[in-house]
Amino acid sequence: MLLQAALNGRRTRAEHEAVPLSPADLQADAIACGDAGAHAFHVHPRDPLGVERLDPEWVDAAANAVHDVSRWPVSVSTGPWIEGDQRRRVALLSRWTGPDAASVNLSEDEALDTMRSLLGSGIRVEAGVWSVEDAELLLRSGMADRVERVLVELIDVPGSDVEALADEIHSILDRADVLAPRLQHGEDATAWVALDDAVRRGIGTRIGLEDVLELPDGSRASGNAALVAAARDLGAGDV
To answer: How many whole angstroms separate alpha carbon 77 and alpha carbon 185?
Structure first.
């Protein structure tokens, strides 16, 4: 059962002083989170000003910084808020050499085109499914058997509805015999609820400052390694 550390996301230092931005920051957190029990990493590469970028210069630098200190895979974001022009986004990702995989949210415009472009460039895809509609689109795309994993992302939902939505999404994937591994996570109010539910289901999950700033008891986490350690205490990452 995979435990991935989501190290930074769109977070800023104004939100948490420990958000890693530079390749050196990511490298240090990768070491600490690996020691705490993480076996994969997800990062949003930044330029020296802390701005998210898809340029190979910054994407490869971020991924390779983690690879230099860890044998575990590194995925990156392809979010359209980073680069809104699809033609330029595809051109940039086609030149990446550092990441093992990239996440694509099915709910985003031109998601299927981005997925095809990544696969064509030899970069594995983490397919982000936020809803029943996203799960159905993944099945219609013809790429469900080609993705590295399906990210069941229980984000835009009240905490009390996490389990019910997860049941619906997993049922759709099960009925279609989707064999790709699944990784389930939430964000902020749903982060620990979704992680607990993933542990109960025996599937992969993730945690990190991208997803939540607080530990399960509501106290502020000191950083990514503390979040990973708390997730391990709850049973995440056990094989």
So the answer is: 15
Domain with residue 130: its CATH number is 3.20.20.70
Residue 42: CA count within 13 A, CB half-sphere: 28
* pLDDT value of residue 239: 54
29 within a domain of the structure (yes/no): yes
Cα(114)–Cα(90) distance, integer angstroms = 7
Q: How many domains is the chain built from?
A: 1
Which pLDDT score, from 0 to 100, does residue 32 have?
A: 98
**Which domain does 193 fall in, by range?**
3-233
Amino acid in the structure at residue 148 = E
Q: Torsion-angle region of residue 47: left (phi > 0), alpha (psi -120 to 50) or beta?
A: beta
Instruction: Tell whether 238 is covered by a domain.
Output: no
Task: Give pTM, 2 decimals.
Answer: 0.96
Integer Cα distance of 16 and 9 in angstroms: 12
